[in-house]
Amino acid sequence: MTRVKTGLAAGVLVLTGAGTTVVTATPAAAVSWCNSTNISSKSFIEWRGEARIPAYRSGSTTTRNCQMSKGSTGSHVKALQTSLNECYGENLDPDGIFGDATRQALVRAQREEDIGVDGIYGPETRDALGWYYRPVTPGSDECSRL
Question: Residue 107 belongs to what H/E stretch?
Fold first, then answer.
């Protein structure tokens, strides 16, 4: 008979007749909730553009390693909605509210990019999505990965 006991967020402890096996979990707690945006600049062949990317900001520290899901609100959600509209043909109201429509649009983009489909924005989704770059000088807009 095998008994399984969960540890305090560290992993799973499996007790068997032959011994004990510890399986550790990945540190998901290292990713904070998005609360801001960060500007990403890119130079293309004929022009330079800037995109707003969801970020976590605390004091003078900013990281793009963040997550958001249904219920999130703010400029970071608006940045995601804008890129979903411009790069994936969605028709979201870029209101900064992560509701059902934003979640479903994100699910479609995740499916299109062939990554985990869960309707939650995190590092894997950030790296896979095309981001909308608005030109600094007149020219055509562009979608590009970071």
Answer: helix 100-112
